[in-house]
Amino acid sequence: MLIKNLKVKNFRNYEEQEFVFSEGMNILFGKNAQGKTNCAEAVFYLCTGTSQRIRHDKQLIRNGESQACLFAEGESRYGKVTLSATIGEKKRDFFVNGGKVTRTADILGNMNSVFFSPGELRLIQDGPDERRRFLNLSVSQLSKNYYISLLRYNKILEQRNNLLKERDSSLILDTLPVWDEQLAKYAGVVTRGRLNYLFKLAPLVEETHAFLTDGAERLVLSPDKRYEGAEEEISSQIRSELTRRYETDMRLGFTTVGPHRDDIDFSINGIDAKAYASQGQTRTAALAVKLAEVEIFKEYAGEYPVLILDDVMSELDLPRRKKLLKKIEGIQTILTCTHAERVLYGTEAKKIRIDKGRVIS
Question: What is the pLDDT of residues 59-107, one digit of tens each?
Fold first, then answer.
């Protein structure tokens, strides 16, 4: 998959600007706080309908403006793709190949993208929410069924939690089985989807991490809970767990069982990485996960996604910089940095200098 060009208007610090990308390495360089990451973010937003940096779309609009506009032309193995978005303070409109898209599920999968920045250390250092967010975004780009099931699961979960806050215990006990049946159904789809993804991702993560560290360390990734069987069997297991936890859920006022409570375990040389990994180990581990994610997209979609690397080189030593460049050969990459010459090491690249929200020829 390729992004050929990008046009932004009133997006972040950009008034109006156009970017043209090559098929290989693209370097966005310049001083700090000039707009390099904003350009990379715009690409990822058009590919996924979301941003890795903010929770509310209105934060993407240039200060003093009422809306932002994005447009990109891309290409996949199925042909040309155009993506555009108009972002207002209260709503957004999204278009794929000129047609308005009303569901986020229909944005996903047209152009896949993987984003890595120093902030991705949260994947290992922070709580389970960050790891579930990673899984949800990755698997959703590959499966609309997963994304839709996740939305329905979350909606039913909210209703079940509201019920658990009722004071009438007899009402709760009479109604819970109804919600449990639906919740377990979608929980089976979400859990099986995550497990399928993790079982493919884990060996690639281990292999990529070994490559980056010259085999000095072994990174193992695994789900923190084990479920066996197809979706229906997992649904049955979760339904039984929900029933067993009635008393606990009623006492706490929320649902304590289900994929919204799941996590991923990381170990480096047999030691819990979440608790004991150094900053350097965490950074390399998170990068290995993202590079393995790229390979998963290639396997599922039949072509590489657009890879975005935001300020990654400044966080790596020289040997790992060179390893990274070798690993991503042949993949369209958008890489941000302050000095292009210091990160290329002979790699051919299109250089785009950015200064105060403008492309400098």
Answer: 999 999 999 999 999 999 989 999 999 999 899 999 999 999 989 899 9
| The total number of structural domains that make up the chain | 2
Two tokens at 269? 């040389």
- Would you say residue 312 lies in a domain? yes
**Mind giving me the DSSP string for 292-349?**
HHHHHHHHHHSSPPEEEEES-GGGS-HHHHHHHHHHTTTS-EEEEES-THHHHTT---
Same domain, 21 and 142: no
**CB–CB of 234/227 below 8 Å?**
yes
Which of helix, strand or coil describes residue 260? helix
Residue 221 zone, left/alpha/beta (φ > 0; ψ -120 to 50; rest): beta
Q: What are phi and psi of 168, to 5 degrees?
A: -80, 100
Full residue range of the structural domain in which residue 275 is found: 130-302
Q: How far is CA 288 from the centre of its chain?
A: 14
Q: Is residue 48 classed exposed, middle or buried when 0-12, 13-18 and 19+ CB atoms within 10 A define those classes?
A: buried
Report the SS3 class of residue 80: strand
- Give pLDDT, residue 52: 83
- Identity of the amino acid at 319: P
Give the number of C-alpha atoms closer than 13 A to the C-alpha of residue 76, restricted to the C-beta side.
20
Phi-psi region of 169 (alpha: psi -120 to 50; beta: other; left: phi over 0): alpha
- Spatial strand order of the sheet with 25-29 comes to 113-116, 306-310, 333-337, 25-29, 350-355, 358-360
pLDDT in tens, 7-42: 999 999 999 999 999 999 999 999 999 999 999 999
